[in-house]
Amino acid sequence: MTHHSPERKFRLAARLLATAALLPLGTAASAQTLGIGTTQGGATGQIGTALAQVISMNSDLQVIPQISANTSQYIVLLDQGKVELGIANYPQTYYAMTGTGMSTEPAKNLRLVATMMPFNAALVAPESSDIKSYADIKGHKVPRYPENSLGDFVVQAALAAGGLTYDDVTSVPIANFPQQYEAFKDGRIDVSIAAVGSQATFDLEAALGDIQFLPIPEDKLEELQSFLPGSYIAPIEASEEIPGLDEATAVIAYDYLLFANANVPDEQITKVVSAMYEGVDFLKGTSPLWETFDPAGMGKKADIPYHPGATAFFKEKGLID
């Protein structure tokens, strides 16, 4: 079936939001400026822009997006104290903190500020193909991302869900996600990483016809977490509106996080989480990415230490014990 993107109604607002985020925010002499590490475009870029706006509007802080080519670049800057805030998914943040997996050196000065929303992803295949499960990928062409990149770890986790490794498939070198989508459209790869509800899935279905998210077996959580710490399996209901969901499925889920340098003053971090807590309606209006954001879950238990300024706010609001 043909799906119409729910993101269309957000595009004008997003463009206005992005433009505003690059302009001077506020004129109060007392405003304190914080930089937030983010990327250009994509989910991370959209989230960073929205956070800069909501914090600047709901506090006396002035937050300015600091654009990097990728997450790993600004995590280093944040660890060095050159950027105050940053955003990334849970696995990337965990690996950065511990200096393992995707990272080579531990970012010892990184502290969690808020858990935001789950990011739901999995591999998709054309409904017309013979690939109906992860085990079915054996012998097929899969994207091979640079070693220790996020794409590399997601693909390895997905293969593990089918009891497979790279040795069981044909690897096709892929540099980044946009290149992956083009390769999938062209038939150079047989499966593709995709996020549920993302614009990419609408584009893929427009080019290929119906696609389907391959279901993650419930008993493969340990295999997933060996590649993607903090991930979990999320059941997703069938939907006539969202590509890849003609049938109910289960996908890999991991949370998007806001973090800070440990030396950012507690009172500033308290203002940051307070602004997010108060600005939930604004955030949800910026993009479908925020649809599942629940401020009550901002202090969700994690294996990464929270900043004391965030913990103080969560305790005050009764979000944590």
UniProtKB/TrEMBL annotation:
Q: Name one Pfam family in it.
A: NMT1_3
Record-linked InterPro entries: TRAP_TAXI
- The residues forming the signal peptide are 1-31
SUPFAM superfamilies noted in UniProt: Periplasmic binding protein-like II
UniProt keyword terms in alphabetical order:
Signal
Q: Which NCBIfam families match?
A: TRAP_TAXI
- Which protein, by its recorded name, is this? C4-dicarboxylate ABC transporter substrate-binding protein
| Organism ancestry | Bacteria, Pseudomonadati, Pseudomonadota, Alphaproteobacteria, Rhodobacterales
